[in-house]
Amino acid sequence: MNAEQKQANENRIKALEKIRQRQQLVKQAISGVGDASGNEQDSSLKVAMERNARPAAELKRPKLTLTPEQQQLIEKNRQKALERLRLKQGVASGVLRDASQASLKQYQPAVPGAINGGPIVGAGFSAINPGVDKPTANYIRPSIHKADYIEYDFSTMQDTFGGFVSNKKVDKNGNPIEMTLTDWKNQQLEKRNMTLHDEDEDDLPPMDLHNAPKCYECGSVDLDKKMLEVFNCRVCKSCKEKHPEKYSLLTKTECKEDYFMTEPELADLGLFRRIVKENPHSGTFSRMQLFLRYQIEEYAFKKWGSSDNLDKEWLRREEMRKNRREKRFNNKLREMRKKLRAEELTRNLRAQRDKKHVHDWSFPERKKPADGEEVLENSFVKRCIDCGMEVEEILM
Prior knowledge:
By secondary structure, this protein is mostly helical. It has 14 helices and six strands. 5% of the residues are buried. InterPro entries: DNA-bd_dom_put_sf (IPR009061), XPA/RAD14 (IPR000465), XPA_C (IPR022656), XPA_sf (IPR037129).
């Protein structure tokens, strides 16, 4: 545990001790209402106020002077508050009775089959027969749950102007579920990461200027609050504007394309701090994440060795991208040429098929006899010059 954590624990213990002392003084002042006079109560309250009052040097605000009318109004409100506290403690202890909780007369319906003068079990039965045990409930509540027949109760939902979507956790009966400490911390952290305004609130300057955190560039103590809280970067607003090459913000796409960061590296919360915002293009898209430029550059230079190696890797990937683009273009061109050539061949075949062929016969020639074949003297053969078809004719 470092010195800052020890100091924080000591401050927390001192604050709890002050709260316990203040509560003890208030209890003593109220318990002595019947015994002590009003002057003693005022004196005890004044002592408690003086003991727990903060010095004016810490508040750093001018002392207010109250008019007699204001002091009289404050005293009147204080007496009213004390009276309400006395009544509340009296009701809790059982000395006093709360008139607002008095039972009202209830309507007793006639019970079918009851005999005149017989006992009637109902809301007033315990008042008529005090010796009999009072029933557990005056009436039976209907066992109806809205969740049984109402799937979405629009009266309990918050209109987010993007559809009736409720972020509150509710149980089956529609009652809100109390948020745990871990859920509250996560919600506050998400709100802090999603809000980054250029104009921060004017905070008070630090008390110890020598030990206060200073800007990396100019040594000023007027730091950018959001840059310090989100990125743990000590830089003032003027230096952030003067050096955009170091303190500008990068999107996840820019980190991947310019510095070749991978998705697991950017998703590691312990490696990089980021600002999470709603996507400006559409509310249904994933949230936009912004990273600090010099933190991304430091990791990228360490990963690739140096800035020159990073530039070489960028050139190598650009060359590979160019080659892939050319190869894809050549493949498409080759496919297009094949398609055109096939279409041309199909067109020629279709034209030849549709065209009627006319034979161009040659002069008839006497048929030559083959081996062991008898040929007539008036047998002649003619052949088509274009297709080569032969026809045998016998002249009479």
